[in-house]
Every structure is written in C-alpha cells, then in structure tokens.
Design brief:
The protein is mainly α. The protein is 49% helix and 0% strand. It has three helices and no strands.
C-alpha cells in the first residue's frame, strides 16, 4: 500500500487526533509531508530508491511519490532537508 494512501486513511480515520485539520490547513499538511519525507529519506538505497522496511525492496510507487513530495516541499520552500 503506498504511504500516501496510508496517510490519507490515517487522516480520515483519526478525527480526534487533530490531523483531519491538515485537509484544510496547508502548513499542517506540509509539516506532515516533511516528516514523512524525512523518514523516507532514511530508507533510500545508494541509487535513490525508497526501500520498504518490511519487504526490504523497492515496492510499487514509493520512490516517485517520495520524489513528488520532496519536489512539492522544495517548491513551497518548506525547509525540507535530508536527515543527517
């Protein structure tokens, strides 16, 4: 299951958590995207592919979704930076 779909399901199913506000709050959504992107950056292999930590291989659309998310964060000047 693509991470983006899991994030959408989490937002839809957790109204008490406050994350449902992300749908209408650009900054909160960008903050959430940044957290996901920074985590996924730690799962990249030497070629830039996102490696699923459970399957131990690149799976479905993880790498292009990651690239699109990072591009969005960079375009929004939202302070994306690779973890040290």
């Amino acid at each position: 299951v693509p991470l983006s779909l899991l994030l959408l399901l989490f937002v839809a199913l957790c109204p008490i958590s406050g994350y449902t506000q992300a749908i209408n709050n650009r900054e909160l959504l960008l903050d959430m995207m940044s957290g996901v992107a920074n985590y996924l950056a730690t799962t990249q292999d030497e070629h830039g592919a996102i490696i699923d930590p459970f399957l131990n291989k690149e799976h479905q659309y993880s790498t292009p979704y990651f690239a699109a998310g990072v591009a969005c964060l960079v375009d929004e000047d939202h302070g994306y930076g690779c973890p040290a």
